[in-house]
Specification:
Layout (H helix, E strand, L loop, with lengths): L1 H29 L2 E6 L9 E5 L5 H9 L2 E6 L8 H7 L3 E3 L4 H16 L3 E4 L17 H6 L5 E9 L10 H10 L3 E6 L1
Parallel strand pairs: 1-7, 2-5, 2-6, 3-4, 3-5
Antiparallel strand pairs: 6-7
Length: 189
């Protein structure tokens, strides 16, 4: 009976990863974003801590498209219409920035995931920024990975001017991106 449960879990995990990848690629297609990548996208099965600067809502779609990883998000996203439900069902880990206990729980959850062989994707700046500025990284994800045999994969996002999330709401940002003829997403490791 245990073998059956393990096989079912592996199948469920594979289906979830495929669903998330299709969702990410579909979102990029719908919004007219074309992804380009410098470097080699690692395909091995070793656990990774994927750390990236944060420029746009498109960053999340790119991460979903390229990596089978647990995403870390701010807690209020869980309550967003549609996206909150998708993120919850996709296995997103939510952290309440105002609650130090929530941050500690998130670090423990990330650590268990990494130790168990799963990859985790974080945007350690904690917010989006325009232009080429990279803000200081919060240390939590690095604390979670300390002492574990995981690869740290740095990812850098860059966009054409005007594609960054600088609008007051996420919906306004998506409307801005969707209104553009095409958004060039450039990512590098």
């Amino acid at each position: 009976r245990i073998r059956v449960l393990v096989r079912q879990q592996k199948r469920h995990d594979a289906l979830r990863a495929e669903y998330k990848s299709r969702m990410g690629r579909g979102t990029l297609d719908v919004l007219g974003a074309r992804l380009s990548w410098d470097g080699k996208i690692p395909r091995d099965t070793k656990a990774k801590l994927i750390v990236a600067n944060h420029r746009s809502g498109l960053d999340i779609a790119v991460m979903l498209a390229l990596f089978d990883a647990m995403l870390l998000s701010r807690a209020d996203v869980a309550n967003w219409p549609v996206l909150g439900r998708l993120a919850t069902h996709g296995g997103t880990l939510f952290v309440d920035r105002a609650d130090k206990n929530s941050g500690a729980r998130a670090i423990r959850t990330m650590r268990r995931a990494l130790a168990g062989g799963a990859s985790v994707c974080v945007f350690p700046e904690g917010t989006t920024a325009g232009g080429r500025e990279v803000r200081p990284f919060h240390a939590g994800a690095f604390v979670a990975a300390r002492g574990l045999d995981v690869e740290v994969l740095p990812v850098g996002f860059g966009y054409e001017h005007g594609s960054e999330w600088t609008e007051p709401t996420f919906v306004a940002h998506l409307a801005n991106v969707a209104a553009r003829e095409r958004s060039e997403e450039h990512t590098s490791e």
